[in-house]
Structures are given as structure tokens and as C-alpha cells.
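Figure S4 source data
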Amino acid sequence: MPPALKALVAQILGWLAAIALARAGLLPATGLWPLVAAQAVAAAGAATALRSARWWLPIHLAFSPLAFVAHGIGLAPGWYLAAFLVLVAFYWTSFRTQVPLYLTNRATVAAVAALLPAQPLRLLDAGSGTGALVRPLARLRPDCRFHGIEAAPAPYWLSRVLSRGYANVVLERGDFFTPSWADYDVVYAFLSPVPMARVWRKANREMRPGSLFVSNSFAVPDVTPEHVVAAGDRRATRLFLYRLGTPSK
């Protein structure tokens, strides 16, 4: 089931469950908030049962309460449109790809920098977001070339603004599956579990033997990484390293 359809089904099931609880007398009879709260919890539970990505759960928990608050304060319809456009600008096709906007933190940047060999190289950030990886790496390694590809328009344009003056950074808006990865010595990705099998197939088809694929937090299914590096940050980030052209289990 497509993620957007799962979300719709979860919301509908949440309302059906909340109404059933109310009719059974299991919710307080005064006010709408108990009904709204029950719907939010039931929708999140339905999303879990439908195996939606974890980042959908806070959306389901917050959707009906926020809609109820917005209705109560008489929010003008234009604000709903504005909020929708902002979400689209930042998350673009996340509902389809199930890849939300993740930002690489400083500790992870330092861990990636430590992995890079001393000689000049070319690195691709597949899904570069706001450029949180390529900018600090460009400062640390002016001898290297860093290429970021991002589909969502708002993070892409923000990365362009923030990366002005970096001669060794190239940023492109588009689908990172489209161009070849053959020219890169390192490909870095911070995506989600959903596309990892497809990403690995592309890496195997196009990356040169000896080049390195680095996945932040999400391992390639059924493939043993060459190394796993802990970034040492609060969220216990792990980098899964895959050397192309070496046997894998």
C-alpha cells in the first residue's frame, strides 16, 4: 500500500475507533478533546499495524489535535495552504519515497572526514538536504570535490545559499538515482531503510571497484558491511561502510 494511502486509512480507522469508544461510553461525555485524543492514539496504532515508517507516528498523533486547535481559533484557510506549501517545499516526494529530511550532525561529519584518504577525491552526497555534510567537508578538504544532489526544492535552495563561496562544492536539484555514480570515489547517503536495496544495486552497477559507499544509520539489507563506525554523538549514529568490488555475505 502506498504510504499516503496508509496514512489516509490510519486516520479513518482512528476516527472509527474513537467513535466506537465514545458510543460504548468509554470516553468522557463532556467536550471533544477526549474524542480527538482517542482518535490520534488510535490512528498512530493503526499506522503501526500497517507498518508505516516510524516518522509517520508523530504526524498521526498531532494531526487531529492540531486541526481541532486551528478550527477553534478560527484560522484563515490561507494558513492551511501556506503550511501545505511549506511542507511540500521541504519534503517534496517523501510520502512516496519514504525518505524524510535528515540532517547530518557535526559528529558524523567528523567521522566521515576521518574516513577519507589523504589523496584528493570526489564525494557524492545522495540526498544532500541543506548541505550539512558537503559544506564542512569542503572546508576541511579543499583538495577534494563534493557533489550534492537533493530533490526537495527548499533544502536545495537553502544549500545553494549557504554554500556560496565554496569553489569545491557542486549542488544539483534532482533525483540521485538518475546520474551515474561512476566518477565518485565515495558516495554518502542518509536516507531510510526503504530505498537501501535499490541504492545498493545502483552502487554495484556503477561505482568503481575499491570505491566506498557510506550509509548513515541504515544498513543495506542482507549485505555485511566492511566496517561499522560509531560517530560518537548523542543519537548513537553508526556509519555502515561498504567497499565496492569486495565479496559480501
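Figure S5 source data
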Amino acid sequence: MEKAFDEELYKMVSINDLIVFCIFSVVGKKEKCDFERLAQECFKMFPKTFSFSKIAKWPDARKLDRPLRALREKRIINGASESFFTLTPAGEKAAETLNKIFRQRKLL
């Protein structure tokens, strides 16, 4: 199981970018990225951002709703909560940049 990223690094990244990175991560594992799988990946990798404020050990999937709509409107992702999410070419480019940031453990 992958461990969470360093909170000091990811707290400076927008929630939209974290979601894009998680879609990239799930798809990169050759899995379908449905809403539940995405919520799991987001909480696993970035627990402080995707947890309830009062109960940090529980994921809060509500934090995905508006950002997913915004990402679709910006044509960064395709899909819907009832189906699967994929990245558009613009989303893949953004995810690759984030992948470099997280691998190097510092913001570019």
C-alpha cells in the first residue's frame, strides 16, 4: 500500500490538482477510476485534505463534488460520478507536472 505524501508539500497544492493527480495514479495502476475508487485514492495519498475536519481518520467524499465539476468544465477530466473518470490531454500534462513535484518532494 502506498503511503501518504508529506503534508507540508501537498498542503500548498490546490485540491483540484490533487484530484487530477489521484485520477492519474488510479489509471496508472490500470484500474477504472470510479467515484469510490477516486475518493479512496485521494484520502490515502492526501489524508489531511480529504478527511472530515472533526474526524480526521474518515474520508470526506463531499470534498470531491465541486472540484470534479470545475475540472470537467475546464476540460481537464472527462467522466461523471455515475461512471468513470479519465484525464484529457490537458489533464495528463498537469498530472505529469505534479508527478515530478511529488517525486522530487518539492514545488517547482
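The mean pLDDT is 90. Residues 16 and 68 are 7 Å apart (CA to CA).
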